[in-house]
Design a protein that fits this description.
By secondary structure, the chain is an alpha+beta fold. It is built from 5 helices and 10 strands.
Amino acid sequence: MTSYGQTVDRGPDIIYSSQEQGDSRPIPLPFIRESDVIWSTDLWKTISAAELFNQFFYFPYDEYINFGKKSLAYILWDAMAADEIPIYEDDELLIPLDNQVFLRRYTKPDTLLLEIGYDDDDNELYETVIRPNNFDGSEVFNYSLRETWFIGRQDSRQDSRRMSLAPVKESYRELPNGEVIPLGHLPLFWVPMQNMRVRSLLVRYTAYMDPTNSVGQPSWDWVFLNQHYEAYVTRESNTHDRKIYDYRQGLDVMLEAERIEDKVFEIGNEMWDY
C-alpha cells in the first residue's frame, strides 16, 4: 500500500514560520457604557527598554539577521507604512495622521552644506549633500502609554484598558552649518490600542521575552492585555493638565509616580472594604 504526504516548502533554512502567530484573533473585550462606570482616571506611563524586564521591547531590532523576527518598533512602523493601522498625532487620539504623508515627511532627505576646503582666494568652498532619512528601530528605547483605569458599577471591580501607545526616540535638528540641536525624547506617532486593526496586528506577532527559546512565546496583544511590562507613571488626569516633572524635581518625581500608582490601587481596594 502506497501512502502520500503533503510537502510544504517553507524555505531552505527554516522548518517553521517563527514570526507570525498563525490565524490568531484578538479576544474581544466587553463593551462598557459610560453610565456603568462609577470612577475613572487616566495614567500616562513610560515603558523603558533599558529596564532588564522590558528588554524584549527592544530586541530583536534587526530582522535581517534574525530570520525575519521584528521588534515592536518595526512591527508598528512597517504596519504604519503599509497603511495597516491608523495613527494619530496626540495621545487622546483626536488628531488623525495620514500614514503616507507622515511617512514622506519623516523620510524626507536632508540637504546639508559641507565645508570641503578653500579656493585660491581663501574663500570657503561648500558641497551640497543629500542625506536620506530612514527609520531605525534600534533608536527606539522608550514607549509612551496612556491607560484608562475604571471601576464598574455592576461589580465594583477595578479594571484598566490600554488606550494609546507611541514609540519614542531622541530627536535632533541639524542646522546647515552642521550644528545639532537636541529636541528631547518625542513620540513618533500614537497608535489606538483598542482599535481592532491594531489588536489584530499585535496578536499576530510574537514578543520574544525569553531570548533562549524561540517557541511558546506570547503575542504582543497578550503582553498589553496582561500588562506584562514595567512602567513608571509620568502623569495623571488633572484639571491643570500637568505632568509630574512640571511640579516635582529629582527624586521627588519617582516618589510622586509611586504615590499616584499606589493611590489608584487603593481606590480599587477600598471598594471591597465593608
